[in-house]
Amino acid sequence: MYEEIRPFNDAEASEALRRVSTNPNIKKISKYLFPDQDADTIVKLLSNVKTVDQFQNDVMSVVIKAVILKSTDGLTYDGLDYFNKDSKGRVPKYLLLSNHRDIVLDAGFTQIIFFDNHLPLTEIAVGDNLVKDSFFEDIIRSNRMIKVTRSLNPREVYSTSKVLSEYIRMRITENANSIWLAQRQGRTKDGNDFTEQGLLKMLAMSGTGDFVKDFMDVRILPVSFSYEFESCDILKAIELVKKAHSDKPYVKAPDEDYNSMLTGIRQPKGRIHVSFCEPITYEELSTCSTLDHNMRFQCLGAIIDDKIHRNYKLYPNNFIALDLLRGNNEHCNKYYPSEKDKFVHYMNTQLKKVPEGIDLDEVEKIFLEIYANPIINR
Length: 378
What we know:
Strands 1-7-6-2-5-3-4 form a 7-stranded mixed β-sheet, with helices on both faces. It is globular. It contains 16 helices and 7 strands. Among the domains are: 201 residues, 3-Layer(aba) Sandwich (Glycerol-3-phosphate (1)-acyltransferase); 62 residues, no CATH class. Helix 6 links the parallel strand 3 and strand 4. The chain starts with 9 loop residues before the first helix and ends with a helix. The chain is an alpha/beta fold. Helices cover 52% and strands 9% of the residues.
């Protein structure tokens, strides 16, 4: 029933990763991540992989740690107490409903935090736009990733959403695996982290109709990602300006997701903080359940968003951007002049990447909003 969306099993992953090891892109990736080592470094790691666990332990953990070392100033986190073992020695499983800033690294950083703390790694829900290329599908589905189908007609969307909902509910209620899922379709482009009602309704599709019980069963734990330097910030700002000036739906270039993926991995991100927030409680769900049908989902979404906003780690860049956006120095006690100079220099460097014909002032405004909106939302 779940063959099309579930992660690969050990035998499928072993076969898939043999295909990956022969792809010419692997040597390029290896050379970027490990410039002082042989170009076959990752190929050699892949050649010995026989199981999904082995792939995550021996390959992906090495790759993600290399990304952290090469492109960040450190990864911090809090909230792991929610994963303490129960009286029977079991680690509780949750639906990790996360804000979404980077195509692959949000989930990747979640995995490395669990790996370093000897917690069971999660399954990860990923849009099918990232698995159109067989090379990426082989890597992603070998890495415990669930395929989320998006680009279908309404009838097919309903059918695939129900299957996804049933799969998520099954994995959580059976205490099999936690699942990482973005709070919205696609990344946040403007710094506004808000949960899509449609996603919550999808989760309810596999339930009994009892609002409180259905959401208690899937055990939602909001996750808040904070990047000091936003992943793909200038690309996001340019995309939003293009959308604002077009009367047609925005159509991505064939290699746009791939380029965003590589940019997100390579771009210096400064400090990164991940907060595992307090899980949604029975009392919170009970409050929402007293409202009419649509308002229940709005209420639950607002509770999730509030937890993400309150646990978002604010950096000097956020306060600098808000002051620049509003043309004042209201928050100057939150940053040093040297930090403001650094951010302005960084912004101006990014703005040089804006193509001709696109309004530079509009791009700059959205660029600043990306950093300022987490403060405004809080």
